[in-house]
Amino acid sequence: MPEARTPADIEADIISRRRELAATLDEIAVRVHPSTIAGDAKAKAFAAVDRTAGRAYVAANRAVADVRAKFVDEDGSPRLDRVIPVALVAVAVVGGLFALSARRRGR
């Protein structure tokens, strides 16, 4: 059989519940405050930017490593069979652009 509660026990329970409710309401007020919401949104945006920047860094690093692997041997020496044709194409493109520029100025 349950013990009978005294009025003092009931009053103590009511006071305890009021404190718990007050703490809960304070927590809710902090969570829904505009500055808290703005701060959370800002933190999420920064996290998204950090993730994107991290992914971009990894992708760029991988691309550089892939290109380097095509033009440099494992021992670090350049692979002339690939470097020379690319250099010739680059010189031809720059020369072509220079010729076009000179031609436009000549008009």
From TrEMBL:
Listed InterPro entries: DUF3618 (IPR022062)
Domain of life: Bacteria
Entry keywords, A to Z: Membrane, Transmembrane, Transmembrane helix
Tagged with keyword Transmembrane helix: yes
Membrane-spanning residues: 83-102
Protein name (Swiss-Prot/TrEMBL): DUF3618 domain-containing protein
Organism, as annotated: Streptomyces marispadix
